[in-house]
């Protein structure tokens, strides 16, 4: 159980680093202006600018609840986790935690390159608050999940970066505590390992533990959490159903006017062809772009051409975690484009995109000389996990091909 | 931050209630919490020892070479050339018996004073009683001390100095050095977080400290009227005590008890000062 009551955390602007940080400065300051220096040291100097990283944050989390904490950079998510995990102390308010708490603000905290994988498991486990017996008991599981059996007695300075993060996540994932505070730890390793991490986190979430999960990855928040808390400028702006929190987050994180910025585009044709506006299902950039798997997704875009192009392809590319999932073209290969403004659209049929966060790229390339213009990561949209129990829908992959093999079974044998 | 422990079923039990509130002012370290994290203290200390002996080519030899070389150089310069008196003992064993506790103290202070800054990654990412860090950092020095002690025993055999009952005070004196070192080390480690360049001042301070402690000379070299000043420094009584314990000269119980008491005071002061500033570590590190 977690109870947070009017929690506030104040920082000195520019970080506490603005304070006197060197002994030399302290000495010279003492000589030059003893009074001011003394006040600063006592923390009663009113000339310092301060700001509230968290202000009047109140919420409570029941046992076994899995709650997402979302918000833009600087909204106070990480500060909140740091206060809850007692790394930094609050300025006002009160937090009550019932049960054993462990926090995962980073994977591999305290890993030492000179030590072997085995030694690091015990070291990291102890740092995260596991007892030696607990680590011993789960040692084989940890090693197996990390897939480093062969190198367990090798110093980890010889590990590949992939092995390193796998081992680091694995130790963390096997923590057995009542309350787990997690910050973006899924952003490690390659795509395959990330999927396994997410799966592991789902097991953890279902395992009857209280979890506070901070993430920028709305897809994983939607998957893991039923409830989410949206923070904005250090305050709670929404606390409730995860889907609604994600909607509000998306709405606040996109540009206000919906116009595309020209500096997002690169390439030889960036001056000749300009993209001004993009809409997904009639919603512009400033709206929340959250869709259901059964929605037909129509991406409409507007732009202008400064010259006539004989053969040009206008393309929309859909990316997920750096992988190009789809490329869609609005017209036949090498259709002409007249000078002046143009408007076009592409559409993605329902149930094609699996739940997750997708990013839209927009561009053009000229057939023949291959000159191009591309704008990367212009808009993000979310496909929610609302498959229901319909296996017809759940069984869809990114690519589905039917009737391309041959089936042999008992019936065939009888005929033979 | 204060911790309310509603029941005594263990620090890590599921019914444990933790209350986090803003705190200010002076407070004593939470002994129960430190005890709950004793395993981490052990693991971190062991880490330092392992790394120390893995990284150096000489390994355990380093723990021997450092004091032996110092002893040889000091014997030549201060014993032979400067003719500093050595209470009737051969100068090499006299200076080595002083160097042993001194080097343990100096190495521990040096290691723990930079320990918090050196562990900024831990401090900003995970919670545990911060005191564990400077405390565990003296582990490697303790091993070096134990290794270097064997040399003293061999020197006693070489110079024909037999073991006396005084030797039973050695553990208490070692504990005294530890208390003083942890006290000074934790205090300096906290100061170093706030003022980064203070770490460059520390080796210099430690160097001066050696010369005001009777490492290379006996306390009797100072005139009777001023000797009490020397004994304000706990290392004076501790080093003098070490010599009495190993070399069998009569023990000065008053100075030894004073030294132990002062060590304890320094220890408590270091811990309390640390407790006052530790809650800001994550914000300024």
Which keywords apply here?
heterodimer, A: 416 residues, alpha/beta, Rossmann fold, Coagulation Factor XIII, Chain A, domain 1, 7-stranded mixed beta sheet, 11 helices, globular, B: 285 residues, mainly alpha, 2 domains, 14 helices
Number of strand segments of chain A: 19
Low-confidence stretches of chain B are: 1-9
CATH superfamily of the largest domain in chain A: P-loop containing nucleotide triphosphate hydrolases
Order of helices and strands of chain A: EHHEEHEEHHHEHEHEEHEEEEEEEEEEHH
Q: Look at the structure and give the CATH class of the largest domain in chain A.
A: Alpha Beta
- Quickly count the helices of chain B: 14
How does this structure look, described?
The complex is a heterodimer of chains A (416) and B (285). With 416 residues, chain A is of the alpha/beta class. Chain A contains eleven helices and 19 strands. In chain A, strands 10, 12, 14, 15, 16, 18 and 19 form a seven-stranded mixed β-sheet that branches. A six-stranded mixed β-sheet of chain A has the order 5-6-7-3-8-9, with helices on both faces. A three-stranded antiparallel β-sheet of chain A has the order 2-1-4, covered by helices on one side. In chain A, a hairpin with a 2-residue loop joins strand 14 and strand 15. With 285 residues, chain B is mainly alpha-helical. In chain B, 67% of the residues lie in helices and 1% in strands. The radius of gyration of chain B is 21 Å and the shape is globular. The N terminus of chain B is likely disordered. Chains A and B meet through helix 1, helix 3, strand 4 and helix 4 of A and strand 1, helix 2, helix 6 and helix 14 of B.
